[in-house]
Every structure is written in C-alpha cells, then in structure tokens.
Amino acid sequence: MKTFLALCLVAATGFAGEMKLGQPLALKQQIAIDRLVAAPDKYVGKVVQVKGSVRDVCQHMGCWMELVDPATSKGIRIKVEEGVIVFPPEAVGKTAIAEGKLAKLVLTKEQAIAQAKHEAEMNKRTFDAASITSGRTMYQIEGSGAVILE
User: Fold this and answer.
1) What is the pTM of this model?
2) What is the average pLDDT value for the chain, to the nearest integer?
C-alpha cells in the first residue's frame, strides 16, 4: 500500500498581516515534517504542530494546501471540509503552521481511485486510473488551527 499524508482543518478566522485559520495554535513545539512522514504511526491520535512552505493549493474550492519542508521536500497535505475554510491561491510560496490530531485512514484501491479522480477534476488536471494500482494509507491531521504567515 502507498502512504499519503494529509491534514484536515476545521475552521477559520480573520486575516491581518497573517491568515489565522481555526483556533489559535496551542502547542509550543513543532515536529519536523520529514520526522512525521518517516514515522506517522507513532503520532496517530496525538496533537501535532508542523511548519512548512505552501507548495500547492486546491484551485477549485481552496479545500486543501500542501506543506513541504524546504530542506527535505517532504510534504503533507492540509485538507479541510469544502466551504469550512478556504485556502487562498496566493498562499503558495508562503510559510504556514498547522496543528491538530493525527488520524490514520486506510483506503481501498477503489476509494484511492475515486479520491485521486475527484482531486484531478477539482484542479483541472489529467488523471489516469491505471496509475493507482493498490490501496493507500492516509494520515490526516484533523486540524484545530493554522496560520499562513506573510
């Protein structure tokens, strides 16, 4: 099975010099993205905070953004419910911090295909179902808050 790391955020508030999403960040210590990606099962069920550069944002509804560690290029997707918060396209290239509880989801091959097809349609990208050959394990942060820094 392939492993995919994602984050889910649940609410958003305000913008003044920086974009604050959801509840204020509570943790005082961050975990490096590459460390989280290397051993995600160690953090399932725990609240974590990560920081990275925004590499991509959903172009359709702003329902996800991808954070990467600039030093290692390891990435994590931050996923939100459509309409709950909207990540702006201009966040690409900025630094963001996200916090929440890490959860593990196991997708069948059919679920992985449906998820990838939906994402491709939302971002007007081509998709080949044959490129998905197995199920996939996803780790999501059910987010409590995030900040996109100016």
Assistant:
1) 0.79
2) 83
